[in-house]
Amino acid sequence: MTAFARAAAQVMQQLQQLATISQHPEYLDRRYLSDEHFAANALVAHWMSQSAMQHHTDAAGNLWGRLSSGTPDAPRFIMGSHLDTVPNGGKYDGMLGVVAAVMLAKLLDEYAVQLPFHLDIVGFGDEEGTRFGSTLLGSRALTGSWPASWRNLTDADHISLPQAMQNVGLRFDDVRNAALTDTDILGFLELHIEQGPVLEDENLPIGIVNAIAGARRFEFRVTGMAGHAGTVPMRLRKDALTASAKMIVAIEQLAIEHDIVATVGQIKNQPNGVNVISGETLFSLDIRSGDDMHRDKVVELIINAATTIASQHSVKLLWRQTHEAAAVSCDASLQSLLHRAIDSAGYSPLYLPSGAGHDAMAMAQICPVAMLFTRCDKGISHHPDENICVDDVEVTLQVLFETLILLSKQHTVNQNAAL
Ligand SMILES: [Zn+2]
Fold first, then answer.
1. What pLDDT, on the 0 to 100 scale, is given for residue 182?
2. 358 CA distance to ligand 1 centroid (A)?
3. Backbone angles phi, psi at 78, to 5 degrees
4. What spacing in Å lies between the alpha carbon of 216 and ligand 1's midpoint?
5. What is the mean pLDDT of each run of 10 residues along the chain (419 residues)?
6. What's the helix, strand, coil split of the chain in %, to 5?
7. CA 237, CA 225: separation in Å to the nearest integer?
8. Which is nearest to 146 in space by CA: 154, 164, 134?
9. Cα separations (Å) of 322 from 295, 302, 319?
């Protein structure tokens, strides 16, 4: 058994152990600023100690560990992900990126590899946003971008964010102390399960994320005329539902043609009676791409198509945007290091966008970011059936180890060139 295989088996075992820390007796549920959040931090901190790392918790409740460089005033390279979960979540989403990184530090220590930078590993306290409704609280504390309005966020038990912080010995007003102001951050590399079926379909254990998709969401309101199902002839109808159905099919068609993901996940129909022609339909649209311009072009095509369908059906169409987030590009240089590391491990490097949001999105505000995806079973996530295999974790560790070695060499070359 190789050292990477042994380490992968240990990572899998640690993830099982971490998954026992839950605020719900029957399923995994670990939310920001709960007792379980800090119990998870304590367990991971224990593993950090075993990996020769110093650890501390920051003003936002994020856990930090450092594998110190041989050079005291060295810059830092950050790895990590989140330790919170959704209710009834899986054992790997977020946690893999923290636990595997801590194991990587252990391997570096065992092999006496001296990095020319400090390796900092962060376990974010909140990414999912399941307690206070806003996502990325952990990583956004690092970027110093907590809006003052978050003072008013409350959880389902009406506990405010400042109160929840106070309950665990943190202060809302101190969160600015968690912001990273250093200018010497070489980058942030987040390992995460794919949460989709692409790697499995390609029969690959890992993939390089080239961009984190930006999303736009819309609400479409189609207004026709309700009427009697038996008395209004087909040619005289203003049926909001059939018009909406055609619009939804057009959205799917345009998404396929333009290689983008677009989803109508919600529909409301009025009056929704078996013998009544539909008078009004509301439906949602969620559209995502790693390329904002491409996404916006497809949005325009969708709106044009929907407008045409509305006029053919003599119904009124109104639409409004309810959400917009820009895509985040991953750093080209870090991507090329991942590419070389995957190549030397004997796998073909596949690039894919991340359709889901991640901590790396926030981190991109302060440093170059990259992400590596590990294949997950059937693409299932946010579900207790979420699963990964130990062999893929082995490849993942090997590739990340090699990536850090390549980064060290690149950094040393750059340093020498600057002298
Ligand atoms: Zn996640």
1. 75
2. 6
3. -110, 135
4. 20
5. 95 98 96 98 98 98 96 93 96 98 98 96 96 93 95 96 98 97 92 97 98 95 97 97 98 98 97 98 96 97 98 98 93 98 97 95 96 97 96 98 97 86
6. 40, 25, 35
7. 7
8. 134
9. 16, 16, 10
Ligand 1 centre and the CA of 245: distance in Å?
33
Answer for the pair 318, 303: CB distance below 8 angstroms, yes or no: no
Distance (Å, rounded) from C-alpha 340 to C-alpha 335?
A: 9
Q: How far is the CA of 109 from the centre of ligand 1 (A)?
A: 27
Helices marked H in 223-291 = 240-257
CA 326 / ligand 1 centre spacing (Å):
18
Sign of the four-CA dihedral 199, 200, 203, 204: positive
Length of the chain: 419
Alpha carbon of 128 to ligand 1 centroid (Å): 7
What is the C-alpha to C-alpha distance for residues 61 and 78, in angstroms, rounded to an integer?
17
- What span, in angstroms and rounded, lies between the C-alpha atoms of 248 and 277? 18
φ, ψ for residue 382 (rounded to 5)? 55, 40
3-state secondary structure of 293: helix
> Rounded to an integer, what distance in angstroms lies between the CA atom of residue 173 and that of residue 148?
9
How far apart are the CA of 277 and the centre of ligand 1, in A?
43
Q: Which domains does the chain have, with CATH numbers?
A: 3-212+327-418 (3.40.630.10), 219-324 (3.30.70.360)
Tokens representing 301 are 């095509």
DSSP track, 54-112: EEEE-TTS-EEEEE--SSTT--EEEEEEE----TT--SSTTHHHHHHHHHHHHHHHHTT
Span between the terminal Cα atoms of the chain, in Å? 43
In 3D space, the residue among 105, 46, 61, 40 whose CA is nearest the CA of residue 79 turns out to be: 105
Ligand 1 centre to CA of 69 (Å) is 28
Which whole-number Å values give the CA distances from 81 to 102, 154, 350, 359, 395, in the listed order? 11, 24, 21, 7, 19
- 8 A C-beta contact, residue 189 and residue 77: yes
Three-state secondary structure call for residue 195: coil
